[in-house]
Amino acid sequence: MRHTRRTLAAAALALALAAAPADAGELILVGGGRAERVNDPALPARAELDLPMPGAVASAAAARTDRARSPRIAAASSRRGRRAVLRALRRSDEERARVWRRSYIRSLRELRRLRGARDTQLRYVVGSVEALALSRRLSANRMPAAFLQLERNRQYWRRYPFPASRDQVSFRGSQIVFTYFPGEGLQLHPLTTFKKANALHGFCEREEPGCDRAALEDLLDEMTGLAVRRSRRFIAWEYMFHFGGGSPPWMSGMAQATALQAYARAARLLDKPEYVQTARRGLGAFETRPPTGVRTTGPGGGVHYLQYSFSPRLYIFNAFLQSLIGLHDFGKLTGDKRARELFREAEPEARAEVPLSDVGDWSRYSYAGAESTRDYHELLREFLQSMCSRRLGRLYCDYARRYRGYQVDPPELELLGPATATADEPVAIRFSLSKLSAVELKIYRGERLVHSALASFRLGTHAFTWTPAVPGTVRVELAAKELRTGLGRKDRAAGQIEIDP
Questions:
Q1: Which helix (H) or strand (E) holds 68?
Q2: What angle do CA 475, 478, 484 make, to 5 degrees?
Q3: In 290-424, where does DSSP find H-type helix?
Q4: Using CA atoms, how far apart are residues 497 and 296, in angstroms rounded to an integer?
Q5: Which one of 214, 383, 412, 428 has the fewest beta carbons within 10 angstroms of its own beta carbon?
Q6: So what's the pLDDT on residue 454?
Q7: What is the enclosing helix (H) or strand (E) of 462?
């Protein structure tokens, strides 16, 4: 298939933009009447903490659903909604209920003062609390997270600079990380927060700068207080905003497993055995079907743990592997037989799914879904390498090496022909290509360039079409430059064509 130079340039630009990560470790720190951007070495890279739209690329339907639902939540602040919140608070026997009531009333007053986009952000979070109350889901154990998020948004939107989309935000005196989602305010981000805990643990284990045991303990103590009892069987750390067609509150298997991993590691480091008990209460998520839990049947027919509890048929490769790694580490560190069994039940499905992620020169983000961005390909490779390093199977080692090769190997280009052609008749100049690349064709008659073309092609056999004008011998030169990694790896091929009259 032929492409214009403009189409190729647009495609290359889209690839570059999709792969560009945010600065790792950058955080908006709020406190003392100011908000400043600082570097936090414990924050992971964007690809490790991001919540991509289900399917890696947002479906139009999911995006429309979110846009439609968000205004309804934002507009939920009604007399009926306010009564439901206050009624739920009166029923709560929590000592903090008075503080939460005060925060809620202050937020309503703040809404009367705010205008424009700031009003939209806070109104969404207020509306989310009211929607929980109206649906009888503003339970006593959900209130700490709901009202902490409300208070942080009230504090932020009244005075601090507007963040960029997906900016990470923390408040002095707390280790919890929030993420800004436009139209939905600052949202508690469990995955980011627990990955930060793992990073702090790593600094201390390796005796590196950045080790802060007190910060690690504070973070996990805070998150323990924000755990929600989703069923009689388990607790979870929830997300409280609409996303990818899913309605709040929902949970992530990847975030849950990362939490188990973080608590088990810190229990040893800090000599806090109660952390193991907290994490053990989260194991039921991997025994419970969606939308309450994350256990489902995968494309290989075995047990799969979901990234999103609201999307039971979305099988995200990197998230599944991280869920298994978290369960494996928790079981190994604590000796917990239940965690070990949950790992053993699902690991055969991972071995069945990993080959399904391979498109021949790159990886897929999810089963039967779009290809990974550069960052998500690397994240999948890292998780495969982590499975390999834990000696969980040769297949993981093989695919970690293969996916690294896709990143660093140059394209392989071969000119297939033809050797002859006829003047004034179109001829297909065929070639094979080993990976997605921009391919340039140049045809010379002697030293004179008589034809050129440029297009992007995927792995496989392809052709440029050219119509020679006169008989004679022409030299064909092909050059390929891979597009995905930004390394600019190249290959060339050349040959001759005899043009008959």
A1: helix 60-74
A2: 175
A3: 317-334, 337-353, 374-389, 394-408
A4: 57
A5: 214
A6: 97
A7: strand 460-466
Residue 302 backbone dihedrals phi, psi, to 5 degrees? -105, -170
Q: Which helix (H) or strand (E) holds 37?
A: strand 34-39
Query: In terms of C-beta density within 10 A (0-12 exposed, 13-18 middle, 19 or more buried), how is residue 370 classed?
Result: middle
Instruction: List the chain domain ranges.
Output: 413-500
Phi, psi of 407 (to 5 degrees): -80, -35
Specify the pTM.
0.87
Contact 73, 242 (CB under 8 A): yes
Per-residue pLDDT tens for 159-176?
999 999 999 999 999 999
pLDDT higher for 489 or 346?
346
Q: Taking a C-beta distance cutoff of 8 angstroms, is the pair 306, 312 a contact?
A: yes
pLDDT per residue as tens digits for the range 411-425: 999 999 999 999 999
Q: Using pLDDT thresholds of 50, 70 and 90, give the confidence band for residue 245.
A: confident
Question: Which tokens in the block code for residue 359?
Answer: 């498109």
The dotted CATH code for 413-500 is: 2.60.40.10
